[in-house]
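Record 1 of the preview.
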Amino acid sequence: MAPALLVLAAGMGSRYGGLKQIDPVGPSGETMLDYAVYDAIRAGFARAVFVIRREFGDAFRSAVAARYAGRIECAFVFQEDDELPGGPAPAAARRKPWGTGHAVWCARGAVQGPFAVINADDFYGAGSYGALSRFLGGARGASYALVGFRLAGTLSDSGAVSRGVCRTEGGRLASITEEKAIGGSDVGPGRRFSGSEVVSMNCWAFTPEVFAGLGDLLRGFVAEKGSDPGAEFYLPEAVSELVRAGRAAVEVIASEEAWFGITYRGDRDRVAAAVEGLVARGAYPRRLFG
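->
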């Protein structure tokens, strides 16, 4: 069975100021998502499942479905605030979706076999999709994988970022710690981080067994923090907890690819320049989907 690609595209882009998932950055109007899907197709993925918010469902479908028609099967899942294990949470005015862990759990009915998870607005490079596809070809049970990137290559010139910093043992994930407000001045000799740390950028390989684990953790999360309108159930922290509990084993694959993404609007020009450089070197055609 060819693996599926689960794309987390429900983020509201509050720091960016718009629907950054479908903002063009390529020379022929391509989005970050277009490059992700293009690389996934080349790596052997046959189906893409997009987790989106209902309020921008029509805009997302019209921008995505027609572009990929005939190239990869597409499905759409809504991340709904009231879709939770055991029913809706205590009444609270949600300011944002429940988080990336909840987004993956919401797709449990749309994914039947091994699958990868990515962010819609991150560029992971063709090699990362190849690594995911190879791992998923033999994935069984609760054996998962994370494609990790070096911290120094994931910062933004436009503001601080949060990153899941990984601790590994023998090539496997031991834990992930969510570190917030990391800026350029925090990285370097004698500073808060060396820059060589492996971080999670939500580039994962899973089997459907992960849904049961996420559901159990999400149930506890809602019971503890369901009344907090800003609480988020993060995927890296959830997987870290499954590892700690002995319910998952995660191989860490260090990517040699350059990562880049859009967090702030000021990141867009830098990303567009990086894409143009890759096109100029022949890594991608000037028009992905002609």
